[in-house]
């Protein structure tokens, strides 16, 4: 068990908790598993996957497993009220595409992830890892998806902190 | 401006903030406006409203403006992958209905709302007010909707607290 460093009584009601410690937690400590689909997946199949995996967003990858887009429930809903045949339409047409999407890294602080979610009004952020070439050089804008941080993650942290007090 | 009661330096890195104060905030201080539809609204029109109002859930009311159900993006998505004509189908068929839904009241603590959202795995909670009859007696299970608390609300509180430190 973690030592309760920094805990102290408040003058009035109850405890103080070290909020800085909570905000400074790393994304890798709180992330959940990413659910991905290939870019040629149909909108219909993506919706089915969303239900089967019980998530709010799907991440879209290409054949080399590089992140190419993000699919929200709203992206998917938007397609279903049009005239399009969602069995024929690939998710690549409706997704938010790289580089117009927001990501976090394993070493980022939870606060940073929460702030991006709030500021950019997204439901979740893919946790990514930058690809490197054989010489170990970073390949610009090529990311592998290694997790997910969502509004649910943030709400859960908010609740869990209280239960730990 | 609120006096920063209970703030103090931590031994190591940064500040302590009074988490109890944050958790104890009342729902009425943080709620946002509820977006409602009538129970005979079509699934199609509800989806359009969801986009126009830019929310994640809609609350369904009857002709007396009593809360009768909640519609999530997933409830709506589920309908669009079936064979049903979403122009003909009323939302009352797909909504989660009273009394099988979770609500909060103005005087509840933010923590309680967050815990319900996490425990019951919902995106948002309608903030409700119990109806009373002419004698001032509470009418069981009859609620008016007076707001909304969502995962976004919780994430925003989480971020704002840090910015106030």
TrEMBL record, chains A, B:
Record-annotated CBS domain positions: 30-86, 95-165
UniProt protein name: CBS domain-containing protein
Keywords assigned by UniProt, alphabetized: CBS domain, Repeat
Keyword Disulfide bond: no
Organism field: Orenia metallireducens
Full-protein residues shown: 54 to 218 of 218
